[in-house]
Task: structure prediction
Amino acid sequence: MFPAKWLDHAVPGTDPAPRQRIERRIAALASLDPPDLVSQLRRVLRVMLITRRSSLEEVAQLFSMQGRTLNRWLKAQGVIFQALVDEVRYEIARQLLEHTHMSMSEITATLDYAAASAFTRAFRRWSGTAPAAWRAQLDAGD
Result:
């Protein structure tokens, strides 16, 4: 414990430059528009989904905020976290189906689904067709 007046005193031997850089960074982060945050979340989720870490709390921690705060930001933009995760999963799934020769079980594992049937149901919900049929349509177009 110490008197509050000491809070106004400079710490001897400190360099103000790092503090100024940190304050500028904080100001930049504070001024982020929520759409920019959503774009950043999409990029982060692409990496996190492949590394099998995509919980709200883990993602929020990367942005130095609580999960509830992140949810409020997203809600203000009309975005639901799980819907964003699904969008990114669908995007990755399409890329893997189109640009690789990975099997369905490999894609299922990459996207962290427990079973191929769960991935197939999700892909069908997103695209209206099964992943194998989607890939076959691409191959037929070549």
The chain has two domains: 19-80, 83-141. Residues 106 and 116 are 9 Å apart (CA to CA). The first helix runs from residue 16 to 30. The chain is about 70% helix and 0% strand.
